[in-house]
Amino acid sequence: MKKGLIAATLLLTSEIIFAQTSGVDTNNLRHTVTDTGIGLGTAIAVVASWSRNKSILWAILHGILSWIYVIYYAITSD
Length: 78
Prior knowledge:
Order of helices and strands: HHHHH
Distance between the termini: 8 Å
Strand content: under 5%
Mean pLDDT: 74
């Protein structure tokens, strides 16, 4: 589980980095990201937090922190 989560995180961050340098219109990308609502990082963080803590308050806080919590969870999960 831990290796898969780390691999998914690295894949997603590399996609973002390469998409920004490959001539993608950043104004269009920014508009698309802000219009979609919650992001993938937020969804992963909420699910990971709920599976570990079973607390709505922690899930909300970790959803706000999103990718920071996902990376923390990947490092500290067994």
